[in-house]
Amino acid sequence: MSMQSELRQLLPVEAYVSPDWFRREQAELFGKHWAFVGMAEDFMRAGDYRCVQVGRHSLVVLRDKEGGLRAFHNSCRHRGTRLLEGSGNVGSVLTCFYHNWTYDLAGRLIGVPQEREQFPGLDKSCLGLRPAKVAAWKGMVFAHGEPDAGPFEAWLGAFPQKLGPHDPERMVEVADVLYRVRANWKIVVENFIDGYHLFHLHKHSLGDGDFTRQRWEPTGRHWTFYRPLKEGVTHDKLLLPVIAGVPSNFGAGAYVLFPSFCLYETATYWLTFNVIPVEAGLSHVHVRTRADPRALERQALPMPPPDQMPAHIIAAKGPHASMRILPKDVHPLESNNVTLEDVYACEAMQAGLESAGAAIGPLSRHESPLPFFQRQVLDHVAA
Ligand code: FES
Ligand SMILES: [Fe+2]
């Protein structure tokens, strides 16, 4: 499908470089959408929690005593202190370190030190943690900062029907890598949905793909893409085994849940690709790769020693994390590695757009997803 009528860049250069534009996106765009938090297995036991920033909302998602997932604003009801950081297990209660106000896993305030003497007549029932919304789908957990947000299913719409036969809940995590990319989050998403660069930047690294037969379609605000393999190519000789229930000639499916949560599916792996805005010119990309359980029987490549870790890797773990990491002395454009090529391209585009003389020209037919995506951004952040 193409969008010939709008086959041009819609966002101004400012949208990629301006801190003011970035602040407006945090409030008007990210703060009004669902964000990926983690996988259900991050919340196995009561008290397991993960913090997530959703626009200007700092949230904590946790597993409660009854086995349900809950999301709260990560701010104490005494004087507003952030309650938790990162991820872990809080045990059976949440206690603010500052003056030890204590909440149960349902967010109710249950303990105030020196209550009778310092807060006579306090009504604790009005001082529970402020709730946010949480949803689970296909083993993935999402949160929304606004308690009256519409249902998650309505936001997904017909998106689930566009995915491949992959069942992430029957796969195992083999790599968890957090990347630092010195580029605006939209450059990273636009690189993910740009079908034109596949022919050029990834000519060798994605050489098994038949780019001429790639196709994409919008689904609500979201975007789905499929690229078949060239005739005769299958993926059964690679490091990871073909996933049970997925044809060995599956090719690649790439999907974006607006604004910035992406999925990527092949015959041998399935991954979440979460683009996290940090600053106008800086993003973190959290990539969690799952594979058929038989992948754990395969010998993994060794990890590079810490001093050989490339600068764009913030953290990496998992039995096959090394497949996503090349030693740092390889030039990205000679690496034959899709991720390195993409990181390099995104950072180079950011650097070019930050130049005072930057101006954006026409788009190709294979870049038609870009104006579609940019239209959604503009609907929230007026130029
Ligand atoms: S701010 Fe949390 S207990 Fe005082
Ligand atoms: Fe790419």
Number of E-state strands: 18
* Order of strands in the sheet with most strands: 12-13-14-15-16-17-11-18
What's the architecture of the largest domain in CATH terms?
Alpha-Beta Complex
User: What's the helical proportion of residues?
Assistant: 10-25%
Taking the alpha carbons of the first and last residues, their distance comes to 26 Å
Bound molecules: FE2/S2 (inorganic) cluster, fe (ii) ion
Coarse morphology: globular
The description of the largest β-sheet is:
8 strands, antiparallel
The total tally of domains equals: 2
Work out the strand percent. Answer: 25-35%
Discrete helix count? 7
CATH class of the largest domain: Alpha Beta
- Uncertain residue ranges: none
The gyration radius over C-alpha positions equals 22 Å
Order of helices and strands: HHEEEEEEEEHEEHEHEEEEEEEHH
CATH superfamily of the largest domain: Naphthalene 1,2-dioxygenase Alpha Subunit, Chain A, domain 1
The computed structural class is alpha+beta
Short structural summary:
This protein is of the alpha+beta class.
Architecture blueprint of SSEs:
Elements: H1 14-17, H2 19-28, E1 35-39, E2 48-54, E3 57-63, E4 69-73, E5 87-89, E6 93-95, E7 102-104, E8 109-111, H3 115-118, E9 131-137, E10 140-144, H4 152-156, E11 172-181, H5 185-193, E12 215-219, E13 222-227, E14 252-257, E15 261-265, E16 270-279, E17 282-291, E18 313-317, H6 338-354, H7 369-380
Antiparallel strand pairs: 1-10, 2-3, 2-5, 3-4, 4-9, 6-7, 7-8, 9-10, 11-17, 11-18, 12-13, 13-14, 14-15, 15-16, 16-17
Bound molecules: FE2/S2 (inorganic) cluster (FES) and fe (ii) ion (FE2).
